[in-house]
């Protein structure tokens, strides 16, 4: 399997010649159930003293030193130094030039930072705003950075409350409004009050903005209302200092779905974050190499981790997770050095874990929602395999009828499927059906939808549906045809 090869260098993943951990060095003699029982008896008969010794022995046994000397550096949320940032000069320069007016007391423009997952959007805006905070502090000015992620948030009201809480936490005061039982208007008022009391100027950073859709599909999306309110708060004097809003999204078409009124008040400067090629990923990892002991990494580890990550759409977060995972595995095995086999095994674990753990933990209704959605992606005769939510919902209704299961509303179905984007199994975007046609969500699977269907079937009573594959396929395509006509 070859990785992306933009400059002709070899980024392919070498064949798996590595031994698995189980057939590696001495793993001890095989212990049968019988010998275990016997062994257990002996232990029970042993004195407290010997038990104590063996625990102490275990605790005292330092084994081989950890491969890490600074594991924090490969934690996804660590704020890294500027020198470790790779390949984002253009984006850094744009964000700096847009936010510079703040330092002169002028209003910076709003911004839309967009691009695939793990491409440094949060990192860049975080790095620049951090410097502005420090520069403002040195001049005795207070620059507030109010940063929220919309992934776990469902409604506008929750988003405004989250903003209040974030500000209150930053300045060390009580939120001053309850989460429920008061109007959204009152929460906005409290937000503005806190900001006016404590900051001279403020930037709102709204991550994963496109996921803040709100509950009702027929209404203006919650993100549109939020952007409208925040970006006009300065013009209406609700916030006295300078205000800027930075929205972060994976959806390149985000602006197509926002309301005209919000579009004109938000009116952002765009900054695009393309995905990384294997060389950039390698450089990103190389700049964090000091997370490991000098002799803690074998030579083939860095190229292999970056080649795997380049295959996962050039996502730096995945590269860093794999780097850390391989190190953890080497530590668990007490190997003292990260080697190719740790990377491969860790990658397998990541792949297996992601979907399996997730599916195991889902409720039946969520499994049915996922199954119906995956079947649309899998059986679609239409170009592309993205799933319009109205089609996914119709197929979900068909499946629930067939297996005689409870049926949720379309809103609940959409909410369930949207949740899966948290795990990177699905990406979501909001689409319009043209003038007067309303909005809908579109789901795209990042992995193989068929593999996902098989896993769900293993685990639920959906087996009877799987046996009617041809019928399901025709239901899917009939619904798609109706939707597209
Ligand atoms: N150019 C880079 N140089 C060094 N590290 C990077 C770079 N880009 C991303 N990273 C690291 O990758 C991880 C993910 O980056 P970040 O959170 O900024 O991505 P994002 O584009 O905001 O992703 P998402 O859309 O999923 O929120 C972080 O740990 C970050 O430090």
Question: What topology does this entry show?
Answer:
Layout: H1 33-45, H2 48-60, H3 89-99, E1 111-114, H4 121-138, E2 143-149, H5 156-171, H6 184-198, E3 201-207, H7 222-232, E4 242-249, H8 260-266, E5 269-272, H9 278-286, H10 301-311, H11 316-332, H12 340-361, H13 364-379, E6 387-388, H14 389-403, H15 410-419, E7 426-432, E8 439-445, H16 449-459, H17 463-466, H18 469-484
Parallel strand pairs: 1-4, 1-5, 2-3, 3-4
Antiparallel strand pairs: 6-8, 7-8
Bound molecules: adenosine-5'-triphosphate.
InterPro entries: AAA+_ATPase, AAA_16, Cdc6_C, Cdc6_lid, ORC1/CDC6, Orc1/Cdc6_arc, P-loop_NTPase, WH-like_DNA-bd_sf
Keywords: ATP-binding, Cell cycle, Cell division, DNA replication, Nucleotide-binding
Function: Involved in regulation of DNA replication.
List keywords for this structure.
alpha/beta, 9% strand, ATP-binding, 8 strands, 3 domains, binds adenosine-5'-triphosphate, Rossmann fold, 485 residues, Helicase, Ruva Protein, domain 3, AAA+_ATPase
Brief overview:
Helix content is 48%, strand content 9%. It is an alpha/beta fold and 485 residues long.
